[in-house]
Each structure stands twice: as C-alpha cells, then as structure tokens.
Amino acid sequence: MLYLGADHRGYYLKEALKKFLKSRKLEFEDLGNFHYDKDDDFPDFAKLVAEQVQKNPEQNQGILICGSGIGMSIAANRFKNIRAALVLSAYLARKAREEDNANILCLAADITDEATAIRIIKEWLKAKFLNNERYRRRIEKIDEE
Prior knowledge:
Distance between the termini: 26 Å
CATH topology: Ribose 5-phosphate Isomerase B, Chain: A
Strand order of the largest sheet: 2-1-3-5-4
CATH superfamily: Sugar-phosphate isomerase, RpiB/LacA/LacB
Order of helices and strands: EHEHEHEHEHH
CATH class: Alpha Beta
Structural class: alpha/beta
CATH architecture: 3-Layer(aba) Sandwich
Helix content: 40-55%
Number of domains: 1
Number of strands: 5
Largest sheet: 5 strands, parallel
C-alpha cells in the first residue's frame, strides 16, 4: 500500500498527485492533511505515514510532501525501519530505491512542480532494490541504530 501525507506547503501538490495515482489505478491511502491549514505541522503527517509503512516496511511505501522536503525526511527517519529520502529528480528517485531501498519518498513542494513530481514518482515506483551484499550491509548498519 502507498500512503500519502502533506502539510500545508505540500497540500496542493499532494492533491494533484492523487489525480495522477488514480489515473494509473495505483492503490493509495491519503493520511492528510485533508484541507489546507496554514497552522498544521509536518511531523504529524510524517508520523502517520511512517507508522503505516513501518507495519510492513518492505511492502508498504509512503510519499510525504512539505515545502522543502527536509522536515518530512527528518521526522520520518526517526522511525525504525523507515528509510525516507528527499528526492529532487528522477535520477535520485531511482538511486534512492536501487541502492538505499527507500520506502518513503519525500518531495519539496516549494521547488518541485507537478510534472517533475510525477516523473520522480514514476521512476521511484518502477525502480527495484538491487539487493546486493554491499547495499544490504549498509541498510543493516542503519537499522542497527
């Protein structure tokens, strides 16, 4: 399952991306925010998405969106077995999945337009973890913390 979350700065991009996901018949669940609220806080949505992905971190995935993407990635990475990556290009999306097995994609709504976000998501969803010894070893070291 793919879980979505965004604060006020990411709200409008999230809403646009939901249309894309629906058009591709991709199953997802929106965990909020469900309306624009200039006073909301990104950690609340990062927590909701991370907790859902955490239930099955090898199968579940998340997309988190805030203004810079930084806050969401910091907040989500505080959860065990979560590998949240701030991604600004399709190339980085592919690398985040292939080499780091990122299970949460973080987007920066302030600098990522809808078309770029769609390219990023397409690449991230199609890329597969390379699962070689080097990448597994590195992820295990991260998960030991």
